Amino acid sequence: MNKSVQRHGKVDLTFAAPPSKSFTHRALIAGALASGKTTIFRPLDAEDTRLTATALRRLGIAIEEQPNRLIVTGCNGAFKDKNPTTLDLDNSGTSLRLLTTLALLCNNPVILTGSARMQERPIGPLAEALPAIGGTVGFRNQPGYPPLEVSGKLRGGPVTIDGSVSSQFISSILMAAPCAEQEVVVTIPSPPASASYLDITLSVMEAFGAKVTRDRYEQFAVSNHHHYTGRRYAIEGDYSSASYFFAIAALCGGKVTVTKLAPDSVQGDRRFLDALAAMGCRVMYGKDEATVESTGELSGITFDMSASPDTVQTLCMVAARATTPTTITGISHLKFKESDRINGTAERLRALGGDVSVDDDSITIRPAPLHGGTIDPANDHRTAMSFAILGLAVGGIEITGAECVNKSFPGFWDAMQDLIP
To answer: CATH 3.65.10.10 residue ranges in the chain?
Structure first.
């Protein structure tokens, strides 16, 4: 499916944020490991979250789908699998990484694999950490990359893990830790990538009854005496997906309000709004909403997005229309996403006339006249959505393979139908 995006004038729009993908993944896992039943209200129904649910079902978890909710019957920390299991997580890195440590709660070995791109995304730091807490890991093809086979039992104890490539390695151990035979103490020797996602992990864990003592992002101690308990849990709105709507106001002019957002959310992608404010937009918060209003020309900024990885590309699109240069820092780990989002974004912007340079941890975008063109997102949902939003300001941009947005935001094109027919 291709989508053609034309230039659009000023807007005055209201959108509802879709449910958070990150919270949905974690709530499914906590519910699966809990005692009793969990009702998840307003879960995100997207390709990635379905992959997590399908994998949990293969491990013996009952998940019932009802309108706008999921009913999860937990296993009380011990899966009831009867045979070795292979989990194909396709292109969902979150699913594969979070479920890797959960394999130590199974009776039999678990093989975790995925798409060709998934097999290029590193998982070595997590695999290297698991033996310290009872795991045995073997790689089927290339060492340090999926597919991998995980076996053993989650004993617990001290473990050191490198989270500089992905905080999901740390979250994987943390989420399984309440089910360990002894307390798990996770030490992180260097600053983790996307540290704010650890706050999401802890928020869900604690909501389900886990007890975690932390020293900033350097050490986490997880009690094995406070287990997950089934509960009713509502998924909050997603700031990553909302960023595309906010960017419309910045790029087209006018005003956009996004509802179903928690103003006090721990989601790191809230910082996207701080970036827009620094560029000259007016940002206002309500009880469960946020509004961005254009105030004229956009000014370039230097901004650290290390805690907000999923909105980096959206900010690049806004930066491409600013009157002065923008440098976005703290983004080296974006090379290991569904695509290399640093160099891929730079190459696509250059193809539209952009003036862009990159180094290992930053991207700089300078003012340049842009024109239309064809964008192949290479099956990366965030590339497709961010360049579609740029198309509203530039015009004449065609997105190929546009259905890839189903990975995280299946309703994207429907939400945009008044702007992108």
So the answer is: 3-18+238-415, 21-219
